[in-house]
């Protein structure tokens, strides 16, 4: 899951660099994905390094919620990738007509 998340973040950063080729809805979804990913990773880092003092049960709950959130973010990135693919296919079909 960690390797897949790293690949998704790198792909999202690449998609961010393709600013002129993507629609505003893809750009907005991609930026929101990156923000939510940074918040999730930051929270897991702070709890993991014990910068935030929580009880043992709360740490476990935050970790489990972080893993669930990471999975949901992975699905969200798949949706962003799919929408980008559909938009590119539509643009290509307009060019070839």
Write the layout of secondary structure elements.
Layout: H1 2-17, H2 24-48, H3 56-96
Helix pairs in contact: 1-2, 2-3
Keywords: Membrane, Transmembrane, Transmembrane helix
Transmembrane segments: 33-52, 61-82
- Alpha-carbon distance between the two ends: 41 Å
Tally of DSSP helical segments: 3
Which H/E pattern describes the elements? HHH
The profile of the biggest β sheet is:
none
Overall form:
elongated
Q: Which class of secondary structure composition applies to the elements?
A: mainly alpha
Which segments are poorly predicted (pLDDT under 50) over 5 or more consecutive residues? none
The residue fraction in helices comes out at over 70%
Rg, rounded, reads 17 Å
Number of strands: 0
Q: Mean of the pLDDT scores?
A: 88
Proportion of strand residues: under 5%
Query: What is the count of structural domains?
Result: 1
In short:
This protein is mainly alpha-helical.
Question: How does this model look, in words?
Answer:
This protein has one domain (1-96). The protein is 85% helix and 0% strand. The protein contains three helices and no strands. The longest helix has 41 residues, at 56-96.
